[in-house]
Amino acid sequence: MVRHPVLRRLLPGFALSYVGDGMSLLAVSWLAIQLAPQTNAGIWVAAAVAAYTLPGVLGTVLFSRILSGRSGAQLAAWDAVLRAVALALIPVAYLAGVLDIGLYIVLLGLSALLRSWGSAGRFTLVAELLPQEHRLAGNALIGLLAEASSLIGPALAAVVISLGGPVLVIAIDAGTFAVLAITYLFAVPKTARAPLEERKASSLAGFAAIWHDRTLLGLSVLTFGFFFLYGPVQVALPIHAAEALGNSAGTLAAFWTVFGVGAVLGGFAAGYLRRWRLWPTTIAIVLGWGAALLPLGLGAPTGVALAAFAVGGLIWAPFPATTMALLQRSTDGAMRAPILAAYAAIVTLSVPLGTIAGGPLITSLGAQPTILVSAALTLIFGATAVGIVMLRAYRYKRTDRKDRDQPGDPLHGDDVPVSFDSEPVR
User: Fold this and answer.
1) What residues form DSSP beta bridges with 331?
2) pLDDT one-digit tens code per residue, 6-37
3) Is the pLDDT of residue 376 over 90?
4) Tens of pLDDT along 270-302?
5) In angstroms, how far apart are the furthest CA atoms of the chain?
6) Is residue 169 predicted with pLDDT exceeding 70?
């Protein structure tokens, strides 16, 4: 991506918008706290945070007929334009004195409507411009920028909030998306921004394609389960830090910091995994993350748990790059963007649903046992995936041997490599 004449011009815009998004991680909830009634502030803050992501799932369905067949550059640029405009309306409304919590949530939701299509556009553009052997590295670099922004963004936001308040942070975030939209306009040639082909897809075309393709369905189920089982950890870790780790915000910050450092290193390393077999690597990441959670769930000393959590970040980080490379390899043509958008919608839903499920678990079991349950279920889930792959390999070999053992078969007795990748969905 650094050497590609088009993609290298997009990298500064990518980096800037990711930093803006990282800053908004803090500012969105902080402004909601200021705007919400104190009696039920928690509900309004949760609604604001959800509004900044979940409407992307709705947008995947609503805009499929309009956006299917569009190029990756078009999809990503339209998402950047919508987010720039909708987020800019928040400081405008604030300065006009009309911003309340309800309008704030509406504008956040509006900004997120094309979120899944924007993600699909970025990775579709990578697939359109890079040969297959370099797509994993391209995906990894985008993931690396996202991970780095989660470390840099909140710290910058804290400084800006202390100087000008959370509204200023959101205004800066809107500006970063405006820069990204302009970058798409001038950095990507018109030929790359043209529609791939004219087609009229149903509103559920991407989901239908995933459902009818075993490779895509298996990858989507693996991703959903992985992120769903991660969701309870987001809730349980702060409570565990408050109850069992000395009620220290510094300890909690240390966990997320070491995870972020590990994730940045893992995101960098992901770009060099192209010679690894992607399916086994992706399943091994699931197993590795589950194992990294065990020390924390078993009540290991804080130093040991921190080291394991850092290793967990290192293991976890390549997962988005490898799964996206598998998706790019298994899709083609105008159906690629709808499938990637549907996949992004599945990912968007998985973590919030897991977070919601974590609440009752913590209430009934406690925070530390919830982390242990999450680790155990993740290991079981990964082991199940290994079993399914091995069963498919066994069945494939048996069927292949029967075919080759027929009289007159010139390949009689030879062994051939087994592949589990379907033909690209067009």
Assistant:
1) 425
2) 888 888 888 888 888 888 877 888 888 888 88
3) yes
4) 877 777 888 889 999 999 999 999 998 888 888
5) 84
6) yes
Neighbours of 5 (CB within 10 A): 9
pLDDT at 105: 92
| 274 burial level (CB within 10 Å; 0-12, 13-18, 19+) | middle
Structure confidence at residue 361 as a pLDDT band (50, 70, 90): confident
Whole-structure pTM value = 0.74
What amino acid is encoded at 230 in this protein? Y
CB 331 within 8 A of CB 342: no
d(CA 371, CA 324): 27
Q: Tell me if 236 sits within 8 A of 367, measured CB to CB.
A: yes
Cα 367 from Cα 234, distance rounded (Å): 10
**Residue 168 and residue 91 in contact, taking contact as beta carbons nearer than 8 Å:** yes
Report the distance separating Cα 424 and Cα 329, nearest Å: 7
DSSP for 137-190 reads HHHHHHHHHHHHHHHHHHHHHHHHHHHH-HHHHHHHHHHHHHHHHHHHHHHS-H
Q: Give me the amino acid identity at 219.
A: L
Query: 19, 144 in Cβ contact below 8 A?
Result: no
Q: Are 9 and 187 in contact (CB under 8 A)?
A: yes
The rounded distance, in Å, linking the Cα atoms of 194 and 70 is 7
How many CA atoms does the CB half-sphere of 206 hold within 13 Å? Answer: 29
Encoded tokens for 322: 């490898």
CB burial class (10 A; 0-12, 13-18, 19+) of residue 57?
buried
Residue type, 161: I
SS3 annotation, 56-88: HHHHHHHCHHHHCCCCHHHHHHHHHHHHHHHHH
Q: Is 126 helix (H, G, I), strand (E, B) or coil?
A: helix
Q: Above 70 in pLDDT, residue 250?
A: no
- pLDDT score for 330: 81
Q: Which two tokens stand for residue 81?
A: 């334009």
Reported as half-sphere exposure (CB side, CA atoms, 13 A), residue 418 has a value of 15
Residue 418 confidence class, pLDDT cut points 50, 70, 90: very low
Six-digit token string for 329: 């390899």
